[in-house]
Amino acid sequence: MAESAKDLVMHDIKRSVILDMLNKGQRMDDRAPDQYRPISVQKGVIDTAEGSAIAKIGKTQILVGAKMATATPFPDRPKEGVFSVNCEFLPLANSSFEPGPPDEDSIELARVTDRGIRSAEVEGDNSITENFFLEEGKVMALFLDIYVLDHSGNMTDSASLAAIGALLDVKIPKYDPDTKTLIRNETSGKLGLKHLPIATTFAKVGQHTLCDPTREEMLAADAKLTITTTQNGQIAAMQKGKGAFTRDEVLDAVDVAFKKSAELRKYVL
Amino acid sequence: MRKVVIPGEQISDKPFVTEYTVVEGGKTYASVVGFMDEENRFVPAKSVYTPRQGDAIVGVVVYVRGNGYKVDLNLPFEGFLSGKDTRVPFAMGEIMFAKVRDVDEVGNVDLIDARKLPAGKIIEFPPAKVPRLIGKKNSMLMAIMQGTGSEVYVGNNGYVYLAGGDIPLALRAIDMVDKQSHTTGLTQQVTDFLAQNKKQ
Amino acid sequence: MAEEKKLIINGKRIDGRSPDDLRPLRIETGVLNEADGSAFVQWGGNKIVAGIYGPRECIPKHEANPYKALVKCRYTMSPFASKEEHGRSGPNRRSIEISKVIREVFENIVVAELYPMTQIDIFIDVLQAEGGTRVGAITAAAAALADAGIPMRDMVCGVAVGKADGTIVLDLGKEEDNFGESDVPMAISNRGKELLLIQMDGLLTKEELAIAIDKAMAASEKIHAMQTEAITKRYEKLESEGLKL
């Protein structure tokens, strides 16, 4: 996603107008600084996946499919299941997305989503993968694929909602030890999610900190920060994008993140 | 609602060659989605903008060259304003309202009569619906400007410029024109909407 | 394997259809916000989304044609599109071939001469698959191109006809695709009734092929009517609700 001279000039124009309006206390779509665009999450939308959800925040639409398979465990963790997150910026989702292998932004989005879920739900006690051991040399694997269908800003929070929605939707297939394969039509239960980590993304434009930045606000932003928080009062992942934040800005953002993730979480339940 | 015409549908048994039609066997077929108007003429609902001589455009200077300016017009290629054709010098990122002087066979656009606009917001609007956004004798444009206090310039290229006033409200009104462009009595609806939502 | 599975019992197919029935089909346009045009097709167990960008600057520039726009097509299948395993993301040999034959459908009908030096991108993603994805993809892409305002000489839709248990059947389901005797995916232009795509595998006689084409022609009328309705419906509702999977 290399930016052309034209893009840079257009961003510059947009930034000055956005900043000018923020200084007058107004966002381009009339939202309060901590207000999200309309949100919806729909689970169970892909029949071929073990779990799925589509999340929409404003005009951004992200689909996550959860697929389960049998796998060979990592040699240093022979009893543990495999959990993996991948992300595709589909070229139909934005004019700036080009066909080709995942670029650094899509890899970052996959890894930030992965870390939030892994810290809260995979590692430690009550792991969602704790029953993934099948037999010596064989475990279950859970693959999350983030499919960005429409990028109008704040992909991180949309992906996080869709990912948690897909995990909540997962029906674990039964394992047949005789054929050593999964029986897709029979289920042994759900993943027991305990923490429901949800990402909250902030953009700093001048002196203003905005929740749920649109694509345009993100282009105009000086700095970007994502904080993933659980329903049990813990921070599960953080990622600063471009720019810089002070200590107090980060800690203030954490407070807002807890408040906002509690609101967002209602849409996945 | 008027009947929607889809690509490939016959719209006349006589040949009419336009950029929105194809002629086969002496008959005319629509090549894009559109409507038949009161006089049974085909009006495209959504189409790709093809610049024509005399069109008014909103553009942004993206390169300053020795001999003139490359101008982003929301087209596959930048337009060009020759330094000889403007008395006002432009800097990168400055916005202009100008006219199309000429278009060559591969779509290169030459500009003339450029007027500099102060810093403002640029949005994209479907070019096929630009006539609705302007309205009969500028009626829609005037309604939006009066209802919001914003300065609005509409280019045939689909770039719309806004500055001052209540821009978020103006954006909502423009969105309303976009979504309801095929309905009648729209100017009145937009006027009413703006009156109801005007900030005190 | 083919002998093992009965695909037609008492004149009915395993999903209860008669030989000339289509699977349930739903088409919607304008489902994406960012793309210049878009469409979604749910066809039996297929869920396919198509998005259009362009005409835009041709990249790489040296590929640009001074006489017309290049039509480009990318068909891919999601890693979760199949019930069985977790697939790999991105194009593979199969999807690259399908992308090519779909592009060769649309090169016939897009009025590319209007936009020299540019490209028109057709992006198709199969989110969920149940056999017949390429004809669903063509049906979605045509509606998406119309939604994008790309000029076309004619509309086009796709449909497959095949042979299962000795019977010529319309719109193969997954089992018929896997265990049937043959499969003929086709794309048919609406006004011109030209075959813009025809592929085949398995075995058929010339007479059987003639029947297959006739059945596809008849079915294309129904599919075209649904495309028309999807395009028209977009102008009846004021707000797009996005993708309804």
Overview of the structural elements:
The complex is a heterotrimer of chains A (269), B (200) and C (245). In chain A, a hairpin with a 5-residue loop joins strand 11 and strand 12. Chain A is an alpha+beta fold. In chain A, helix 2 crosses helix 3 (155-169). Chain A is built from five helices and twelve strands. The mean pLDDT of chain A is 94. In chain A, the strands form three sheets. In chain A, strands 1, 2, 3, 4, 5 and 6 form a six-stranded mixed β-sheet that branches. Chain A has a four-stranded antiparallel β-sheet with strand order 10-9-11-12. Chain A has one domain (5-268): GHMP Kinase, N-terminal domain (Ribosomal Protein S5, domain 2), CATH 3.30.230. With 200 residues, chain B is of the alpha+beta class. Chain B has helices at 130-134, 139-148, 167-179, 186-197, and strands at 4-5, 10-12, 21-24, 27-30, 34-36, 42-44, 56-65, 68-72, 79-82, 95-103, 109-117, 121-124, 151-154, 159-163. Chain B has a five-stranded mixed β-barrel. Chain B has a three-stranded antiparallel β-sheet with strand order 1-5-6, with no helix packed on it. In chain B, strands 2-4-3 form a three-stranded antiparallel β-sheet, with no helix packed on it. The radius of gyration of chain B is 19 Å and the shape is flat. The model of chain B has no long low-confidence stretch (mean pLDDT 93). The model of chain C has no long low-confidence stretch (mean pLDDT 94). Chain C starts with 7 loop residues before the first strand and ends in a 12-residue tail after the last helix. Chain C has a single domain, classed as Ribosomal Protein S5, domain 2, CATH 3.30.230.70. Chain C has 245 residues and is an alpha+beta fold. In chain C, strand 3 (25-29) and strand 4 form a beta hairpin. The chains are: A alpha+beta (269), B alpha+beta (200), C alpha+beta (245). Chains A and C meet through strand 2, strand 3 and strand 6 of A and strand 5 and strand 7 of C.
